[in-house]
Amino acid sequence: MTQDATLFVLFGATGDLAQRMLLPSLYALERDALIPNGLRILGTARTVMDRDAFRANVAEAVRKAIPSGELNEDALTALLTRVEYHAASIDDPAALASLTVRMCEMRGSGDTLVHLSTAPRWYGPICEALAAGGVADSRMRVMLEKPIGHDLASSIAINESVAKVFREAQVFRVDHYLGKEGVQNLLALRFGNALFEPLWNSRFIEQVQITVAETVGLEGRGGYYDESGAMRDMVQNHLLQLLTLTAMEPPSHFDPGAVRNEKLKVLRSLRPIEGEDVATHTVAGQYTAGAIDGRAVPGYAEELGKKSRTESFVAIRAHIDNWRWSGVPFYLRTGKRMPRRATEIYLKLRAVPHSIFSGAGAEPEPNALLIRLQPEERISLMLMNKTPGLDRSGVKLSQVALDLDLHDAFSHERKRVSYERLYLDALGGNGTLFVRRDEIEAAWTWVDQILGGWTARGQEPRPYPAGTWGPTSALALPERHGHSWRE
């Protein structure tokens, strides 16, 4: 039976992700009194340091992430009293054995949560070391960071190595997008309101667009990114997770099994893109030199320091072959060095079947729903309205937006980092916002077909200037079907 964790072990505790996101998220939970009573925190990494040095490291990370005027010193002190450190190289069996001894000494009566903020190739060896040390029992949960593999075969191999030690219910695979307030609010919007669900199908919706656009380039991650590219880094996880939440059937309950079962059905209903469809339904691009916000930026190859065939942009026309979505195109788009940073879901409804205003010189535009997740969270419903005033030629119509600005509506609530939600759930054993193994492997199956098609055709990414919305062929992708990207 799942209990609150009384020990939290963070592998990679001195790494970049820990400094920027993980340690500040633990502080936020401490400040809001959301950490389980009696929880102890054990950081581990290759770096040799004592407990006081690591506590100073934690304090520095928190102070850097939290504005000085908002920092609660009492909460920081309380967090630091929970923190211990044990150096261990994950390629050193003796060091890992020593770490498991320390974990045994620190375990309380509750469960243990282990977060592997390491390269995925170490997931199997670490889990084996935990088992050999006698701590990988039914009272342990393990969090795994993406990417779970480079393709389907490697994903299966990593999942198998973890499955030798832990049951599926004990494995919490992270997609940090699922911890974002806006993503969770998508579920509330769909299933907490009677207004939308009757319209959420092919009878009323003409097309769906999901965009994840970044203005940044490689940001010092060239080695990793050049091996993955936009398809593996963004489409396989973030975009497909957003697609499943947008398209899934209503789950029977808001619990891990019910939600993830419905997401899996969507992934398994995705129409394969293979053969000639690869050329007509997908576009890969790579940015060249250009300008972002009036500032000149180098091209991908210049940042990387060499020529590359890795895509920094992907656009896809996808279809979900099921009863609800038959015939509705889902346009997916992600890229680096885009004109603006945005994560949004855009649903365009079908036009009215007959316009009564044609004789009056006005034509209504189709309604649309925009769900913006970042940089700000906003929901806009575009409706037709009579333009105020008098006109001899007839009625004039204008499209206006009914806006729900979540920042204004909940201005008293602090904007939270996604890992705060994920840690809160994982510490309590709630896996709803984590990704199940069969979801990961279904997503890789679909993505691998596209990647294989690109390779078979010798297809290279098409250039696009930084600060634009991708190659011209990406703009033509929806236009061939009478649609256009929302920009």
Describe this entry's structure for a reader.
This protein has 487 residues and is of the alpha/beta class. A 9-stranded mixed sheet has the order 16-15-14-13-7-12-11-8-17, sandwiched between helices. The N and C termini lie far apart (49 Å). It has 2 domains: 5-145, NAD(P)-binding Rossmann-like Domain (Rossmann fold, 3-Layer(aba) Sandwich); 178-415 and 433-479, Dihydrodipicolinate Reductase, domain 2. The chain is globular, with a radius of gyration of 24 Å. α1 packs across α13 (418-428), α6 (152-163) packs antiparallel against α14 and α8 (222-247) packs across α14 (437-457). It contains 15 helices and 17 strands.
Q: Radius of gyration from the CA trace?
A: 24 Å
Provide the number of structural domains: 2
Helix content: 25-40%
Supply the CATH superfamily name of the largest domain.
Dihydrodipicolinate Reductase, domain 2
User: Uncertain spans, ≥5 residues at pLDDT below 50?
Assistant: none
- Name the CATH architecture of the largest domain: 2-Layer Sandwich
Distance N to C terminus:
49 Å
**What percentage of the residues does DSSP assign to strands (E)?**
15-25%
Largest sheet: 9 strands, mixed
| Mean pLDDT value | 92
Text of the CATH class of the largest domain: Alpha Beta
What's the number of extended β-strand segments?
A: 17
User: How are the strands of the largest sheet arranged?
Assistant: 16-15-14-13-7-12-11-8-17
The outline comes out as: globular
CATH topology of the largest domain: Dihydrodipicolinate Reductase, domain 2
Would you tell me the structural class of the helices and strands?
alpha/beta
